Amino acid sequence: MFDEIVIKEPNDPSRKPQYELKQIWIPKAIALISEYPFFDFFSGILLDLYFTVIHDQENSTSEQKQTFLIEQFVKELVDGLPPYQKGLKIHYNLCSKYLIERDVFENRRVELKIPSDNNLAFVNTRFFDRFFQLIKVEDIVALYSALISEEKTILIVCEDPFELIPISETLISLIYPFEWCLPIIPFIVSDPLNPSYDLFEFVNHMQSIIIGIHRSAYQDVKYKIEDEAEKCHNIVVIELIDCYAAPATKDSKRGHGDASR
After folding, report:
1. What does 47-89 look like in DSSP terms, one character per residue?
2. What are the tens digits of pLDDT across the range 112-130?
3. Does this model's pTM top 0.85?
């Protein structure tokens, strides 16, 4: 909540304007930012916070209602989580009665286990499952070769932009124990109604980079790649499967060819 000064202009120019102070409510947004990709752990915390504030408070009687301060919640969260270290196990106990009653999380808590030095690195298994649902079998060898060699730009084409972050994180985990030390742009925003060929020039002249774009933006890049195929040997295009699209019929499959790679 913050105060806003509203100026009311008088009808009579000779009179001074009047000032009125109004309070404005703005919805709060909380984002957990970390150097480490503990997405499921953070999602569980935010989910618990949401149901505690929205569902539990609204569905309780006036006698049961308690003042829930988000600022206090954030303070306890920051002070209660230990610093990062290998082999650490963290347990976050749920606050929301809604989540506890429905056993959304096992043992009524969200757990995070960080591997020790003599174990494999931390990976998000849910991201891996999603990655292999979206990737085409014929693209796996070309993709892995480009990741290991770091000699080509990897262009990821996806229908849902929210899938690009999990895909990018999975690509980094795939080459463990090696590390990807070059730039990563999970998603480039483009206007599908106003196509620009500058996107192709950007992709084609960047060496060894991972870029994600929406399928609508890829149509223009695709035509340029087909027209200048001899100049695009350093681009590996990975078109992810559109899980929401209707299955193609045999006739429709005959009329379309594969994208140039």
Report:
1. HHHHIIIIIIHHTS-TTT-----HHHHHHHHHHHSPPP-TT-E
2. 998 888 888 888 888 999 9
3. no
